[in-house]
Amino acid sequence: MRRHFEIDSTAIDAALMRNADGYALDVAGERQAIALSAAMSDGAQTLRVGDRHYRVHVARDGDETFVQIAGRSFTVRTIEPLTVFAHAGSANADLTARAPMPGTVVSVRIQPGAHVAKGETLMVIESMKLETAITAWRDGTVDAIHLAVGQTFDRDTPLVSLLAEAAE
Amino acid sequence: MSRIGTVLIANRSEIAWRILRTVKATGRRAVVVFHALDAGSPAVRQADLAVRIEGPTPVAAYLDAAQIIAAARDAGADAIHPGYGFLSENAAFARQVAEAGMVFIGPTPDAIDLMGDKVRARAFVAARGFPVAPSAIEDDDPASFVARARALDLPLLIKPAAGGGGKGMRIVRDMAVLDTEIERARSEGQRYFGDGRLYVERYVERPRHIEVQVLGDAHGSVVHLWERECSVQRRFQKVIEETPSPALTATERRDICEAAAGIARAVGYRNAGTVEFIYGGGAFYFLEMNTRLQVEHPVTELVTGRDLVAEQLRIAEGEALGYAQADVRQDGHAIELRLYAEDPARNYAPTTGPIARLRWPDVEGLRVDSGIIEGQRVSAAFDPMLAKVIVHGGDRAQAIARARQALQETVLLGITTNREFLERVLADDLFATGAVHTGFLDERASQLALAPPDHETLMALIAAAALSDAGLRAEADAVPPLYAAIGAWRN
Amino acid sequence: MRRIETRIDLRSEAFLANRERNLALAAELHEAQRRARFERPQRDMERLRRQNKLFIRERLELLLDPGTPFLELSTLAANRAYDGEVPGAGIVSGIGIVAGREVIIHADDASVKGGAWYPLSVKKIVRTLDIAIENRLPVIHLCDSAGGFLPLQSEFFADRYYAGRIFRNQAILSKLGVPQVAVVLGHCTAGGAYVPALSDYSVIVRGTGAIFLGGPPLVKAATGEDVSVDELGGADMHTQVSGTADYAAGSEQEALAMARDIVANLRRPQKMAIEQQAPEAPYYDPAELYGIVPPDTKVQFDMREVIARLVDGSRFHEYQPTYGTTLVCGYAHLWGYRIGILANNGVLFNDSSLKAAHFIQLCDKNRTPLLFLQNITGFMVGRDYERRGITKDGAKMIMAQAGAEVPKFTVIVSGSFGAGNYGMAGRAYDPRFLFFWPHGQISVMGAEQAANVLTDVKIRQLARHGGTLSAEQIAAIRDPVLEDYRRESSAWYSTSQMWDDGMLDPIDTRNALGIALSCALNAPWGDPRYGVFRM
User: Fold this and answer.
1) What is the pTM of this model?
2) For the segment C124-169, what is each residue's pLDDT rounded down to a tens digit?
3) Which of C66, C279, C508 sits opposite B491 (nearest CB)?
């Protein structure tokens, strides 16, 4: 069954399939038998992909799978096809500024309802001991400010939303 | 002074845990304070008593002197160990602890005051004949500050007078931006330290950060415990520290260490402290003195065989050091790696997430000071340092090899960290020669960047993600066995 | 169960010659299927791209579970009709897996005449829905049709099994509790509008999908009203205002993903329980079928050799091995399912007919689906056989076969002539599925017998008036008849007319029957009303 996988900035569509004696993975027509053993006493698992066997550590949290393989660890985000389509079709994609990194709100410069010009500072956040200004990415009207001064946030948290533009 | 039976540790994460180990190992009772976000942390789990504290923000809780002193009093603590950061260099707090009838494990409030003011500290050190960098100090004459700064040779470094830890620091290579950079540094200084005063000094290009550990007792004895090289930094924050420094000649080592001990003696320093220097072109300048236990103190412990926290406790109890400078030996080489919740590929932006899996490896000479445990969530509320991986080896090469092995075999899943990046740095040719400076990571950024995973690795990652996804597996398993056995057949 | 012991010499001349001919026939079949599936005039493909539509084959791959089979039915429908310009009759029909559920798909192929419904298109849709009814298979309709092909309306509109039957079948499916999901990927006009309307769930693509009884030109002509496609029957109108459709999708991909999500929420039906065991591949290589079955329907061969290459482990329990030997009967497993097989090894005599009737009743009684492997020239004729009641005995076979409650499956392995076709569960007897091998032939009698009969009639007519015919004149009468017969009795003609559910490469038969059996178990079947009469 198909899923959209994101690893860092790489996005890959793949399908997990059953066959007579296990599972297979299909990535753009490349099909390989795959298997993941139960955890050994040290928590490691053996991952088989075609003829290759890897010693891996795997953990999950929601839609994220964390995999340590050959000394490196990765986060694989799994997205259902319908979610991918829903986001692709969203007309509200550019309505909200999201946090580029985790941090704290230092100051809020505008009120909901305010008209802002492109480039105007909406909010200042602090992360890594550096201040970053969140500026208006287009002219518009502020719809909502999602956080108050002093609040901390994770990456991708909505910060400020602008009202949708009237349809042409 | 009498024996300290119960110590309240006014800190969190790995340092709280590290202090707690020694407090308990020396037969004392350990009390910790914690914010709710840290409820599951190792220190809280292992403390004899853990007291929850609150604040408008998680950080504010650990800065709330009154609350912490009250907790200490309730817990029957004899002393408070502040660790590093938070209240560790707050002279007012040190005084309040004393007024509450407890021992502040650290230097005297006066020493904190003196060294806490970077401007006064510089003047004090310079006046006693120790080397400092050419500078312009705002307090000397605020009206002429900018003009005096302009008169110095480029490049310049702007620092908040009350600062530390790299906060609010700005490098200026073009006089045209001096004014705006001064304004920014002032705003950050105001916000972080409640003090917008600045000073500007000559910035040493490709400088090395070398610091010296000192210990002084209440009876006037001061020794140094050799230097630490802390030049591998990003955003003015240390990432890798080691001792001995690969840069110093024997003479330079002696000079710099004796200068540090001399400064401590001049201050009348008591307890553990660190004197930091900028080293470049064969010269070193006094930078600042940190009047507390330093993050990177374990490398000193590994090569000297001395437990600095135990020493702090002894000194706080009024004991004499009991040994002379000549007794402080160095054995082998030690390296510390700071494991941060950050993404080196995204300009070291901090990361958040769960500690979904954590396994420290079994490696010869390895010591791990960890503030995290499996199952915990790392938030943006605190400093992103998760743990310190410290390794001891017979020489630098062996220490590096062991450190690489330790990093490779550490299992840490759920959050992006700099683990692999640290391993890349250790494997770097230039790092191996010891030719590092504080701009090393920026300069070597392209060589140190991790290659994106190759095709086989991507396939393996997707396979692992797909097979560990119960929902996805259920969908695949929903295919009736007959159809699964026939496979992608078409007639 | 014993393994069949083959008597085939894989190096014999006959085997090698058969193999060569049959491989060529299979290649011809696959090439014809490839053309029917993929070859389209450039302008039609360009139009699809312009309309931002996917090709039907891309739609199917997105709809089906990856890595699962698709049993396509009647791929070569209409291959001998409409000058060959309506490949597959413009409809794709087949059984596959969507979200783990067995479903049957009816998909309009807009790359063929804009998806217009020809008479054989209608026949194919009706047959698809008949299969759905008989096997209780959920239906997914991929709707993208310009409507009926009006010049031929007399051949698809009015009669019992014409277009109205599509919607009647939809209603019956609903009555039986068999779900239907419609995905509106293009226009559904006039009758076509009822396909989504009569489905339980419908998804419509914004921009390209539309549902209306009369399109904008018809509305303009009828009432003078100027209205756009979107206003009249677009995705947002139907999902927000009229409620005719349920889900609006931003793209075909999203629509198909939604359809999968809908199917994932369907109840999984309880299947009929029959004897089953772990599947096992045939012991003998199914590819040997090419060398076993002579391409000439007049050449006899042992059907046990075919059975050995279809069934699990090539194991076969033969019933009455020494009685009525021109019909081989017995039990085997196919993809793990226990089945009863009736296979022709010659003409049907009295004893073989009685054996058939008896064995069918046994299977009906012990709930064993029946597989008919046809290679039949008919029931034996002649005075002796009529005196022994061959017609009466044949009637018993037909009675038992037609009345059996268990599902039946028929494969025309070679010839299918005369009443033998009836006894052996021909199309009229509602086998759940009927497949045809490429060299097979079907007609009321053999082409040469028929030509001879017709020529004899002519000669006798002339003889009554004192005339005679020269060899050339006889040939002039005989040859066209022979030619017509040969053409109309070929598997290609049968499949063009949908007298079957498709031609099969012999080596695909096992998988096709496995899927057919699995589907058949979705529908409950009744109990036999009498005990087993020993004939």
Assistant:
1) 0.85
2) 999 999 999 999 999 999 999 988 999 999 999 999 999 999 999 9
3) C508
Contact A85 C257 (CB under 8 A): yes
Task: State how far the Cα of B272 lies from the Cα of B83, in Å rounded to an integer.
Answer: 11
Q: Which helix (H) or strand (E) holds B407?
A: helix B396-409
CB contact C270 to B (< 8 Å):
no
> Cβ B486–C515 below 8 Å, yes or no?
yes
ipTM score here? 0.95
CA–CA separation, B379 vs A65, rounded Å? Answer: 19
Cross-chain Cβ contact B379/A154 below 8 Å: yes
Q: Which residue has the tokens 């003195």?
A: B289
Q: Is the peptide bond before B155 cis (omega within 30 degrees of 0)?
A: yes
| Single-letter code of the amino acid located at B297 | H
> Is the CB of B480 inside 8 Å of chain C's CB atoms?
yes
pLDDT tens-digit readout, C67-93? 999 999 999 999 999 999 999 999 999
- Token pair 């076993």: residue: C292
* Interatomic CA distance for residues C87 and C425, integer angstroms: 28
Q: Sign of torsion, CA C430 C431 C435 C436?
A: negative
Helices (H), C39-82: 42-50, 56-63
CA A136 to chain centre: 22
What pLDDT is attached to residue B251? 95
Residues of C in contact with B477 (CB under 8 A): 100
Cβ of C100 under 8 Å from any chain B Cβ? yes
Query: How far, in Å, CA of B385 to CA of B372, rounded?
Result: 10
DSSP 8-state code for residue C3: B
Residue type at B127 in one-letter notation: A
**pLDDT surpassing 70 at residue B163:** no
Contact state of C257 with A82 under an 8 Å Cβ cutoff: yes
| Closest to B218 (Cα-Cα) out of B316, B113, B99 | B316
Q: Can you tell me the distance from the alpha carbon of C66 to that of C28, in angstroms, rounded to the nearest whole number?
A: 28
Q: How far is CA C111 from CA B260, C210, C396, in A?
A: 85, 17, 49
Which pairing describes strands A140-145 and A2-7: parallel, antiparallel, or unpaired?
Answer: unpaired
Nearest to B34 by CA among B58, B66, B70, B56: B58
* C-beta of residue C92 within 8 angstroms of C-beta of residue C60: yes
Q: Does B462 touch chain C (CB under 8 A)?
A: no
The answer to whether A89 contacts C254, with C-beta atoms less than 8 Å apart, is: yes
* Cα–Cα distance, C205 to C257 (Å, whole number): 12
| Alpha carbon distance B248, B260 (integer Å) | 15
DSSP state of C490: B
Q: Would you tell me which residues 232-261 of chain B have a C-beta closer than 8 angstroms to some C-beta of chain C?
A: none
**Is the Cβ pair C65, A89 closer than 8 Å?**
no
For B452, which residue in chain A has the nearest alpha carbon? A8
**Using the beta-carbon criterion (under 8 Å), do B488 and C72 form an inter-chain contact?**
no
- Chain C residues whose beta carbon lies within 8 Å of the beta carbon of residue A86: 254
- The label of the residue with tokens 């795997």 reads A58
Q: What are phi and psi of B490, to 5 degrees?
A: -130, 135
**Exposed e or buried b per residue across C145-181, where buried means at least 16 C-beta atoms within 10 angstroms of its C-beta:** bbbbbeebeebbeeeeebbbbbbebbeebeeeebbbb
Q: In this structure, what DSSP letter does residue C239 have?
A: I
pLDDT at A167: 40
DSSP conformational letter for B168: T
Angle ∠(B291,B296,B299) on CA atoms, nearest 5 = 120
Residues in chain C: 535
> C89 vs chain A: nearest CA distance in angstroms?
30
